[in-house]
Design brief:
The protein is an all-alpha fold. The chain has one domain. It is about 85% helix and about 0% strand.
Length: about 180
């Protein structure tokens, strides 16, 4: 059960963040993207790296949890302490998925604002200003967007989001194994 819920959370993060990002790219909002991979290499390598990353994350999630069950079944070295590692992995999956879902809602709000006539003019003006700045100063534009990306990455983590991720990660850990995989013990 924990494997299915974890994959579901990862897929929700993909749907909300990456799919909405691609929709925004197709609408001409690519100048607002601050991801360093996109800025340095372009859209196609960004999409390919995203697909490879998510396939690897899902494979690692499944492999670690299958190994976890095998450790409990065979009572290998450190089998009781592996719970801590799996708990931190659950928190990480919940935290990353929650962050990506929140970013996806921001993208959806931007799309909704774009359909409002007054806000559309403001958004198009911001896009045009950013496009002119990118064409006039491409190196500074990339540096500023990367700085914006890393500032958002490091400074937008609140204590509330962190503790909610810990609590939901704990619930994922407990619900997924019905307290623990002790049926294998």
């Amino acid at each position: 059960m924990i494997i299915i819920i974890g994959i579901f959370l990862i897929l929700m993060g993909i749907i909300f963040d990456d799919i909405t990002s691609w929709v925004l790219f197709l609408k001409g909002f690519s100048v607002l993207e601050s991801n360093p991979i996109f800025l340095n290499f372009g859209l196609i390598p960004f999409i390919i790296s995203s697909i490879i990353l998510y396939v690897c994350v899902i494979c690692v999630w499944v492999l670690i949890l299958n190994y976890y069950k095998k450790m409990y079944k065979e009572k290998r070295l450190g089998w009781k302490t592996y719970d801590v590692f799996v708990f931190f992995l659950c928190v990480l999956v919940v935290f990353i998925s929650g962050t990506k879902i929140a970013l996806g809602f921001n993208h959806i709000n931007l799309m909704v604002d774009y359909f409002d006539e007054d806000k559309r003019i403001e958004i198009e003006n911001n896009i045009n200003i950013a496009e002119e700045y990118r064409e006039a100063n491409p190196v500074e534009f990339k540096v500023n967007m990367k700085t914006k990306y890393y500032d958002g990455l490091y400074n937008n983590i609140s204590y509330a989001r962190f503790w909610l991720s810990v609590m939901f990660g704990f619930l994922l850990f407990k619900i997924g194994h019905k307290v623990a995989p002790y049926e294998y013990a």
